[in-house]
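ok trying this again, last paste got cut off
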Amino acid sequence: MKRMENKTGNTSDLSKKKRWRIALQVILLLFTLSIAVGLIIFAKFFKIDEWHSFDPSLITDADCSTAFYDSCGNEISILHSSENRIFIDITSLPSYVKYAFISAEDTRFYEHGGVDIVRICGAAIADIKAGGNVQGASTIGQQLIKLSHLSPDKTFERKLEEAYLSIQMEHEFSKDEILEMYLNYVYFGGGFYGIETAARGYFGVHACELSIAQAAQLAGIVKAPSRYAPHLNMEKSIGRRNTVLGLMRDYERITDEEYFNAINEVCELKNSLESKESFFLDHAIAETCSILNLDRNELLKSGYSVYTTLDTSADTIAQELVSDSENYPNGADDAEGALVLLKNNGSIAALVGGREYSSQCFDRASDMERQPGSLIKPIICYAPAMEYYGITAASILDDIPKDFDGYRPRNSGDSYSGRVSVRTALANSLNIPAVELLDYIGLDVGIGFAEDMGISFDDECISLALALGGFTYGVSPLEMAGAYAAFASGGEYNEPFSIQRIEHKGKIVYEHELEPKRVLSEGNAFIMTDMLESAAQTGTAKLLAETGLHIAAKTGTNLDSNGDVRDAWTAAYTGDYTAVMWMGMDDSSLGALPAGTTGGNSACVVLSKLFSGIYSQENDIFQIPEDVACISIDTSSIDYMGTNLLLLATAYTPEADIGEEYFTIDTVPHQSNPFWQYPEPPEQVGWYFGIDGKPVITFISDDERYTYKIIRADDDGNELCISTLNKCIGVVEYRDPSAMPDNSYTYFIKKIHPNLAENGKNLESKPSRSLRVIMYG
C-alpha cells in the first residue's frame, strides 16, 4: 500500500515539473514574441529602415579651401567654394586647444562609447527640475554626426539615429581621429569652417598658435555661432569664453594662474586669410585644373595645397609698371598692356594680363593673340638659318628693295643700308634681310623651328610676311616669352609653367618635372644672345643699356594697313630671367598708339624699369660655351674677289678693317686675307717671243691693288727695273722693248704691297722664278 502511494506521489511530481517546463517555454516564447513585436513596432514607429548608414566620407571629404603658395613657400591666397575650411592635423595642436572643446562640449569624451549615458541622465534630471529643455547631452561624436549626416530636425527619432551612428563611428575611429574630424568640420560663424580657418579669420594666427583664451573663445562659439561670434557680439563672445575657461579650470585642464591670465587677455580681431586674386592666380588655377582634371569649383573645394612659381616681389613690380599710366605714350589713355616674366627654365615668375584686374577677367598675357612684328625675326628667320644653314653673325645680307615673287617688303622709313652683316641687320631690325633669310631657308623650315619653340601657327596664312610678324591672328606674350627663354637657357625650350607641385593633406599628388627640348645648339644660342645684346646696347632696344645690366633684347612694332601703330613689343632677357612686354589697343575702334610709337620707345621703357627693379646690382655675363670662339675677321674681305668669302684678319690688317665676331667651331673661317700678308711672289711666271722678236714676260696678278716690278739682269749681274705695273688683274703680259739681239737676259718679278711698309719702304716679295732669255741676231 505504501509502495502504491509512493509511486502515485512520484508521478504527480513529474507532472508538475512538466507543466512548469511547458509554462516556462510558453512564457519565453511570449516574451520573445513580445520583444520581436516591440522591435518591429519600434522599427516601424522610428523608421529604422530609413536611417542612414555611417559614411565617413561625408566628414573627411567635406569642402576644404585650396591654398596657393609662391615660389618661396609663402602663402599668397586661400580660395574656396561654398565653405572656407582649412584642414589641420590634431597632433599640431596644443593640448589646451583640444581640452577647451572637450570642456565646453563633452567633458567625458575620452570615457564614453559615443553616447554619454551619465550625461543623458544628468541632463534629464536638470530638465525635469527646470520644467523644460535646459541642458544638452549630445557628445562631440553625436554633434559631428548631426552636422554631417542628419537634418537639423529636433525629433526623438533623429536623436536615436544620431546616437546609433555615433556609436558606429566610435567603432571605426579613435577618439583623437573623431576629435580631429570635429575640429575640422564644425562652423564657427563668419564664414569660417574648421578651427584653422576660424583661428586665422578671427585672430590672425594658425590654430597651433592659439592662446588659451583664444582656444576657449573658439570653443564657446560652436554652441551658437550667430550669438557668440566675436565680430557679431564681442561682449557675449567674451562672456561665453570666460564660461569655457571656468570649465577648463574646474576640470583641472588649466591652472588657476592660466585661468586668470586668460580671463584678462584682451581679444583683438585680425583676419590673416588672404583671398586675393590676380592674373597670375587665374593662370595658376587654370593650369592646376588641367593637371588634376577638375573644374574651378571642384578645385577650390578640394583642399589642395598648390605651390606655384610666383616671385611675389617681381609680380608686384610688374603689376605696378603695367598699371602706371606714366609708362604709356602720351595720348594713349585707352592703351592696354601685358607683361610676362619667366625664369629661364620656363617657370612663370610674374604674369600681368592688363592694367586693371577684376575676378577672372580677360588675360592678355596668355589668352590674347596679336601680331608680333619684328619680335618674331630671331625665332623664324635668324635662328633656323644659323642652326641648319651655317649662317653666322658675320654673314652678309642685302638690305635693298627686293621683290619676292610679288611680295615687296619695305624697311621703316624706306631707308636701306645695302650690304650688311647679320649682326647689323638683327640689331637694327632691318626688314629686307629677314625676309631674304626666310626665303632662303624656306617657310617650312622657319615655321617648324618656331613651332619647336612654342609658337602656334594654327589657321595662320603661310607666307613670307611671317618674317615680319604678319600673322593672321598672332601670338601671346606668354608664347613669345617661352621662345626667347630658349635663347636665354642655351637653346633648350621649356614650356612655360606656373605649378611646381600640388599636395593634398600632406601628400604630394603632382610635381613638375622639367622636360627641356633642344631646339638650338648651345653655341648658336650664345651667338644669338650676343647679337641681341648688340640690339640692347646700340640697336632698337638701346634704352635697356641704361640698366647697366648684361641683357639681350629685341623689339617689335606692328602697323596696320593704314600705317597706324597697333602693337608695340619688347622681349629682353638676362642669364636669369626672360621678359616680354606688349602694349596696344584692345580694339581698332579705340584708335591706335600715337604715331611714332615703337617697341623701342614704349614697351622697352617698361622692361628697363622691370629689370632695374629686379636687380640691385650688376648681373653675371652670358657664359661663352666651349664650342664658341671669338675671332678677328677682316671686315673688308666680304667683297674679296666677289666671292663673299669671309676671311681672317692678319697682323697686317688695318685696324679699321678688323672686327671681332663669335663663331661656332663648325663655322670658324680658316683662310686669312692674302692681301694683308707679306707679299708672295707672283705665280705662273713665263715668257715668249712676240711677233717683233721682243721677249714678252707673263704672270698672274691675284689682286689689282699690288704693284709689280719687272726686273732684268744682264750677264754681268746688273739689275734694272725696266717697268712698274699697277692695277693689274688676271693674266698680265709685258713686252720688253729694250731687249737687244745677240744678248741674253734674266728676268724676274717682284710684288710690291701698296699699304704695308717696313723702315719706310713698302714691303716687296722675294723675286719670282727667274726667266733666262737669249736674244739671237
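PB: full thing came through this time. The chain has a mean pLDDT of 89.
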